Every structure is written in structure tokens, then in C-alpha cells.
Amino acid sequence: MTHRLYYTAPFRRSFDAEVLTVEPVDGRCHVTLDQTAFYPTSGGQPCDTGTLGASAVTDVIDREDGTIVHVVAGPLEAGKIVTGEIDWTRRFDHMQQHTGQHVLSAAFDRLCGVRTESFHLGQVHPTTHTPRGGGPGPSSTIDLARDVSAADVAKAEDDANRIVWEDRPVTIRFATAEEAAGMGMRKESLRTGTLRLIDVHDYDLSACGGTHVERTGAIGVIAIGTVEKFKGGSRIEFFCGGRALERFRLWRGALAAMQKHLSVPAAEMAASIERMQDEARAVQRTVRGFQEKLATHEAQALTARSPGTTIVAAMDGWDAQGIKAIAGAATSLRPDALIALLTTQSPLQIVIARGPRSSHDAAALLKSLTARFGGKGGGQPDLAQGGGLSGSMAELIGAIYVLAGQTPPSA
Length: 411
Fold this sequence. Notes:
The chain is of the alpha+beta class. The protein has helices spanning 88-112, 150-165, 177-181, 241-262, 269-304, 320-333, 362-373, 393-403, and strands at 3-4, 14-25, 28-33, 35-36, 50-52, 55-62, 68-72, 81-86, 116-120, 140-144, 170-176, 194-200, 204-207, 222-230, 233-240, 310-315, 338-343, 349-354, 376-380, 383-387. The chain starts with a strand and ends in an 8-residue tail after the last helix.
């Protein structure tokens, strides 16, 4: 079992330890030490990173037997003393988020009577201190046991920040499970033996093995982001400390850009966007009406110049949605016909439809086409659509006629 220095000294940034074992695994080394300040991934909190000697620590794993494994990029020698250095930027960020979570969960519990079911601390890239893909720091989340109102959220957020700004002490305590049961913990622990407790003075007491700040003031601020329904409860997104500042900058930039484009004050922005959405929907309805009329007109012209029961045509200037509307209108005009329409722009799209008195299977015909010309698609016997077919337009049109049991007009 590895001695865990972070249990009692979470602000320790470096340490010396003896290398006990070194095991090569997939081009890296799994290293165990007699003691460590590296926190392993556990309890919703990602692991610490840093260095052991000259080797980068990229992952830290907590085995079931209590041994902590350090995944390092370079080799170390068993029996030697090595110096470990914690990536403090990453550690302190995790401490802000984790202690912030304890305070926020306690606020929801105290003010709203709702417990936290689970916690996830968003992962920051271990070398750049940014989320994977760049941008502002990722969010963390808590999942609450029931749905909460906007008023509940505001009330909990306000009280959590009151505790932050009062700069209350956060202390580490140890007690047996029996002792802890009578100490007023927010959530009963299922662990046995000695428990490590995190005590936010006169506000929250929880069993936890994670790393935490020493005073609530170090959290900086707790800002709630999105609130979503999740598994019968609520998922609360939140940001603490530096992540809250990064997220504020993101939102400030987005707000400034929208103000510039909309030319309205921030207080009127929501109403302005709602008006624009209403106007856009009205325009879309008008456009759809014109498109339907145009599709009907095109279907009338198409069926008038195609006397047979198989109608195949390349529709210049139409997209997939347009040819689908034309095909639907054409089958109403010619219920005995098979209609196959193709777009002329790349990538090529195809719609196959049959009238109610046609015996053809549109989906089967499209499947035969894609087997020969590639692409993909699907549908039902009365309507199928797809795209990405190779081959010339003449080859495709000819193949459709043949599959429909007809002689191509050009033959």
C-alpha cells in the first residue's frame, strides 16, 4: 500500500520517494513508490500530473490493493530515490473545483433539500492546462436527485458564494465510520474503518479522499452554467475560480459580438433574438409555400412530357429536399408510376418514389443501385432516398430504367 501524502498535505508540491517497482507497459513504465503526493483519478476528480525525476507523469492509477501506480514516459530504476514534482496549476484548479462542489452540493442540500447523486470534474489537458481541443476551461457537473427550479438554482448559487466570500476554513479530519455517523455528515458513507472527512466550517462535512483548498476564499467564485433535466433529476454545470473567469470572458466576448451585430443593449438582446426568430420562421413558411407550388408545377410538367409508367429525370437547380417534393407531387398525379429523380450538383442525391398503384419497391431499387454505383441510402417500398453514387448521369438513368424493367429511352 502506498503512503498518500496528499491525504494530510494537499498543498505539498514536491516530495522524495523510493522507487519500489518498474513495469514496462505499452511503451511506458508503470511505477510504484513507497509514498506519493500524486492524486490518482478517483471520486470524480482527475489525476495529478507532473514529473518523477526527468520523466513526465501522464496518469496516476489507484489499484484495489491500495497501491498507486504512476504512468511515466521514461524509465526509472527500482531501489533509487526519486523526486516528484506536482503540476501545481492543474492541482490547484482541481482543488478549486472540488471544494466548490462540496460547497455547492451543501447549498442545494441545505436550502432546497435535494441531495447530490454524483459529481464529475471536467478534464483539463495535462500539459497545456486547457480542455481537449482548446478554448475555455471545461465545466464540472453535479447530478441532483430531483428537478430544481430556476429560483432554487439562484438561491443555492447565492448561498454557496456567501460561504466562499466568508473565507471559511476547510479542514481535514479523520474518524471511524461509527464516529462519523454521529457527526452530521451531509451524506452517509458506505465505507468502513477510518474515514477522511472534509469539513467546511459550520456548513458541510463530507467523507472524501480528494484534494481541497484550505479556505473557501481560495475557490474565488462559484458560477452555475446550464441546468438540464437528467435521469429524473437535474444536471448542474458549474465553474469555480479560474475556470469561472475564463467562462466569463467567453460569454463577454459572445455578448459583445451579438450586441455589435444586433445593435441593441444587452438587456434587450433576448427579445431582439426572439423577434428575429419569429421573422425567420415566417419567411421560412412563405418560402416553403412557394417551393411547394413550384414543385407541383415542376411535377405537372414532368408527368406531361413522360407518358410511361417509369419516369426518370435529372433535375437541374434542385436539391434533395426539392426533388423529394417533386417526386411526391408526381406520384399524386400519376399513381401508377415509378418516379426517380436525381440532382445535378455534387454530391449527387437521388429520390425514388412510387405511386399507390405501382408495384415497384423503391427501397429495393435503390439498394440495387448502390450495390453497383456505390453511395448509401435507404427508405421504404414507397419512398427511398440516397446519395454519393458514382458513374455518369446517363449510366445512372439507364440503370434505373433497366432495374424497373423498362428500356431506356435512348436505347
